[in-house]
Amino acid sequence: MLDLADLEMVFSDGRNYLEYDGDTKYIAETMMTADAIIIGTPIFQASIPAALKNVFDLLPEGAFRDKVVSLVVTAGSSKHFLIAEQQLKPILSFMKAQIVQQYVFVEAKDFHRGMIINDDVLFRMDRLVEDTVMLAEAYEAIQKEKEKVYGL
Amino acid sequence: MKKYRINPETGLEFGVFTLGDHLYNPHIGERISAQQRIKELIEVAKLAEQAGLDFIGVGESHQEFFATQAHSIILSAIAQATEKIKLGSTSTIISTSDPVRVYEDFATIDLISNGRAEIIAGRASRVGLFELLGYDLRDYEELFEEKFELLLEINENEMVNWSGEHRAPLRNAKILPRPQDGSLPIWRAVGGTPASAIKAGLQGVPMSQAMLGGAVSSFKQPIDVYRQALQQAGHNPAEFPVATTTFFYAAETSQEALREYYPHINEGMKLTNGQGFPKQLFAQATDSRSVINVGSPQQIIEKILYQYEQFNHQRYMAQLDFGGVPIDKMKKNIEIIGNEILPAVKKYTAKK
What we know:
A: 152 residues, alpha/beta, Rossmann fold, four-stranded parallel β-sheet, two-stranded antiparallel ribbon, B: alpha/beta, TIM Barrel
């Protein structure tokens, strides 16, 4: 797991991700070598946080090709429900991710002292994990079939 | 065209080039030494000349997994080892070099080779060399533009008066030696975007366009806007050559070519660029409208002629060594080019 709070990351300047160093390179390389990614993010000022956008900006175009990406989003209120749909998914699509369409949206009222207290959220989390694994396995199987056709 | 030593009467020029990558052969997981790789590049140049090819190119790169940091020195060795084949840089990163030194080097190679040297100047796709050679990455654009303009000026005038931001001024500076015929063909390397192609056109310099993968029609666009930009800036497009580059690999059948070459491209791209080459895109090489020149000799002939029909370009450069392709396969490819592909391409493109 990459916890951005524990890592020091520089702003992207458009260079190839292999040419960063330290935590920045570690973050980029971890993302690039993953088969599936679960992104957990808060909503800040009715948008995704700059730190998360910077992770995307470090990576090349098409970085999520052949990767499954799913989302867990927290926010102060339900008014932010569509932020992931309208701001995060377009970025992931542009970067060629196979997106798990249904994401888990968690509001402030679902937490108490760092714990999730809403059982429905926990059920939704379990389903998200299941969907992520299922899509990753299905996608891998589809890839294998396609590669037989390519003969490569 | 004459200024750039291109004779359209003789048809499309055919060359081979290397970025100078020094990678593992993915089929056996081994890598030859840098010394052997450099010697093989010189060997390939000799073979290309024997097979009747028009051009051999060696590119400058300073990152890991490359062996041609001193590309002009390798070109100098090629100049000595060959007699007829034109030779040039594919490409020289002018942004992080002194144009005066670059010109001195290439004018010297031109004299050693009896007038066969050329420069293709580029901006570098990777940026590690900025730190290595002491330049600020923030000047990426301007370093190229300013130094490339100085290089062009040195090419036109033996005596140069110049001042700029990124190099000490030159006052009545004599840049010597001069090339055999007074000037060198100097091209601008373009990565396939219209923005770069327009710059080349407005500047009035020949353009060399790299084509990794995709549809021929996508790469026709930048060539068309390049010629429009030339016209707009008062140049005659008929006087400026266009060169293109693609991956190249020929084998008996297209499936054999794809299967043998794909691991080289994919593993090579992973190490040098951090991202493999999508199989799906590569598999489309069997279509004549894809720019990837991989397949059976007949297929490749058809592809090159289709590209010629669309681009009306003057030189094609094949990259057949990327990703640790062993020397015996390079030899075989050059043989196929010389025996089958080149005669067919010349036959259809030479003015009768």
